[in-house]
C-alpha cells in the first residue's frame, strides 16, 4: 500500500505530464481551416454567385458589414445608370436575380415600396449594412430616393444602395436634435395649395411655406383653389397681387369648374412636386382633376380658425400619367421654419431684403424701430401691408 508521500509524488508527476501535453498541443502548427458557409446567398441557393467575388479559401476576420458591402458593390457593377432601367441578370442557381433602379414611393420601419420603370411598387427590405452615419440625417431611405434593388420576381426585393440626393425636404429629428429626418428626397418644387374661401386664404401660412421652399432650395408655386367661390372673378388676382409683385408664380384653379387645371397639369408634368396646404383647401380634388383616380385622404375642415387638419401621417409618392410624381407633406408648417432666426427672416422677403440696409439701425427688426426703411415703404405702399403683417407675425414666433 502506497504511503502518503508516494501518493503525493504520483499526483505531482501526473500534473506535470498533463501540462506537457497541453504545451505540445498549444505549440504545434495549426492546420488552416476554411470557415463553413451555412448561409444561403440571395443570388444563388448555395451562394455560388457570391463566390464569384474570388475570395481566398482561407477567410480573414473582416469588419462588420464588409461582406454586405461587397454584395452591394456586385449589384452596382452589374447596374450602371445607363442600363439600370433595362435591368441586369445576376447568375444564380435555380433562379435569376435582377438588379434594377427604382424610386421609393413609401417607407415603413425596415421596409419600403419601390416603383421600377413605372410599374406596381415592389415591397423591399433595406440592406442592414446601409447606414446614414455622417450624413446628418437619421434615415437611410426616404420617399423619393432613387435606389438600386435586387429581386427575383417573387414580389419582394432588397434595397442594395441609394443614389446621392439632389435635394431633401427634412425636419429636425424628435430624438436627436442635431440630426434631421428626411421627409421627401429629390423634390423639384413645392406646390402651396390655398383656398380663396372655405377656408379663407391665410397669408401668414402661405409665407411660411414660401420660406420653407427657399430654405430647401425648392421652386415654389402658389395655387389658389376654389376661385369659383369669389363674389367677383377679379378678386383672387387682386388679392394675390402682393405675391405676384414679389415674383412668385400663382395659378388660380377651381376643381369644380375646371378653371386652371390645364395650367396646373403642365406645371406638375415631369417633376417631383411636394404638396403643402391645409386639408379642406381641395388638394385631393385638384389631383383628381389633374389625373382622375389619383386621390389623397381627405377630412372635413375644422371649425377652429378654419385651419383644417392634416390627415396624412406619412408621405407617399404618387406617380402621374404625364410623368413626374406628387407627394403630400404632413407637418411642413411646423418644421419649415425650424432653426431660422429673426435676423435671417428679412432675407426671405424679396421686397423687404433690399430695404434692410437703408434702416437707421444695423440690427433693425423692421417691427418698431425709428428710421426703419421697411416701415416707411409700407406706409408709402411700396411694400404690401398684408405681406408686412405676415412678416411681423412670423418674426414674433422665431427665436432671437
Question: Could you explain how this protein is built, in words?
Answer:
Helices cover 26% and strands 20% of the residues. It is of the alpha/beta class and 400 residues long. It has three domains: 76-165, OB fold (Dihydrolipoamide Acetyltransferase, E2P), CATH 2.40.50.140; 187-335, Rossmann fold; 342-397, Ribonucleotide Reductase Protein R1, domain 1. The protein has a six-stranded mixed β-sheet with strand order 11-10-9-12-14-13. A five-stranded mixed beta barrel has the order 2-3-4-6-5. Helix 3 (203-215) packs across helix 11. The model is unreliable at 33-64, 74-94 and 298-313 (pLDDT under 50).
Briefly, what CATH class of the largest domain? Alpha Beta
The side-by-side strand order for the widest beta sheet comes to: 11-10-9-12-14-13
Largest sheet: 6 strands, mixed
CATH topology of the largest domain: Rossmann fold
The averaged pLDDT comes out at 78
Number of domains: 3
* Class by SSE composition: alpha/beta
How far apart are the first and last residues' alpha carbons, in Å?
97 Å
Q: Quick one: CATH superfamily of the largest domain? A: P-loop containing nucleotide triphosphate hydrolases
> SSE order in H/E notation?
HHEEEEEEEEEHEHHEHEHEEHHHH
- Separate helix tally: 11
The best one-word shape is elongated
Strand runs, count: 14
Radius of gyration: 31 Å
Portion in helices:
25-40%
Amino acid at each position: 500500500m502506497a504511503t502518503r508521500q508516494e501518493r503525493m509524488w504520483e499526483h505531482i508527476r501526473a500534473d506535470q505530464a498533463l501540462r506537457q501535453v497541453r504545451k505540445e498541443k498549444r505549440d504545434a502548427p495549426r492546420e488552416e481551416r476554411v470557415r463553413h458557409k451555412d448561409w444561403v446567398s440571395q443570388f444563388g441557393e448555395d451562394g455560388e454567385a457570391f463566390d464569384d467575388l474570388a475570395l481566398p479559401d482561407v477567410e480573414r476576420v473582416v469588419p462588420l458589414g464588409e461582406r454586405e458591402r461587397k454584395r452591394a458593390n456586385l449589384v452596382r457593377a452589374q447596374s450602371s445608370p445607363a442600363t439600370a432601367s433595362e435591368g441586369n441578370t445576376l447568375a444564380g442557381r435555380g433562379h435569376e436575380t435582377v438588379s434594377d433602379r427604382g424610386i421609393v414611393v413609401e417607407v415603413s420601419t425596415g421596409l419600403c415600396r419601390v416603383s421600377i420603370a413605372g410599374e406596381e411598387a415592389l415591397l423591399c427590405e433595406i440592406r442592414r449594412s446601409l447606414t446614414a452615419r455622417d450624413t446628418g440625417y437619421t434615415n437611410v431611405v426616404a420617399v423619393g430616393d432613387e435606389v438600386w434593388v435586387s429581386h427575383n420576381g417573387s414580389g419582394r426585393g432588397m434595397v442594395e444602395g441609394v443614389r446621392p440626393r439632389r435635394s431633401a425636404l427634412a425636419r429636425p429629428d424628435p430624438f436627436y436634435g442635431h440630426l434631421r429626418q428626411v421627409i421627401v428626397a429629390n423634390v423639384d418644387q413645392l406646390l402651396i395649395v390655398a383656398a380663396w374661401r372655405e377656408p379663407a386664404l391665410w397669408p401668414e401660412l402661405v409665407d411660411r411655406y414660401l420660406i420653407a421652399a427657399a430654405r430647401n432650395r425648392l421652386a415654389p408655386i402658389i395655387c389658389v383653389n376654389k376661385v369659383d367661390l369669389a363674389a367677383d372673378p377679379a378678386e383672387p388676382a387682386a388679392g394675390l397681387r402682393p405675391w405676384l409683385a414679389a415674383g412668385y408664380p400663382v395659378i388660380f384653379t377651381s376643381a369644380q369648374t375646371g378653371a386652371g387645371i390645364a395650367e396646373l397639369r403642365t406645371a406638375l408634368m415631369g417633376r417631383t412636386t411636394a404638396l403643402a396646404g391645409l386639408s379642406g383647401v381641395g388638394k385631393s380634388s385638384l389631383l383628381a382633376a389633374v389625373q382622375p383616380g389619383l386621390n389623397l385622404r381627405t377630412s372635413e375642415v375644422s371649425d377652429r380658425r378654419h385651419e383644417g387638419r392634416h390627415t396624412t401621417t406619412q408621405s407617399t409618392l404618387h406617380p402621374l400619367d404625364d410623368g413626374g410624381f406628387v407627394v403630400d407633406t404632413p407637418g411642413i408648417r411646423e418644421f419649415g421654419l425650424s432653426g431660422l432666426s429673426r435676423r435671417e427672416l428679412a432675407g426671405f422677403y424679396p421686397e423687404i431684403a433690399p430695404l434692410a440696409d437703408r434702416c437707421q439701425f444695423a440690427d433693425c427688426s423692421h417691427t418698431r424701430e425709428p428710421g426703419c426703411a421697411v416701415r416707411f415703404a409700407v406706409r408709402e405702399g411700396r411694400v404690401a401691408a398684408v405681406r408686412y403683417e405676415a412678416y411681423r407675425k412670423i418674426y414674433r414666433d422665431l427665436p432671437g
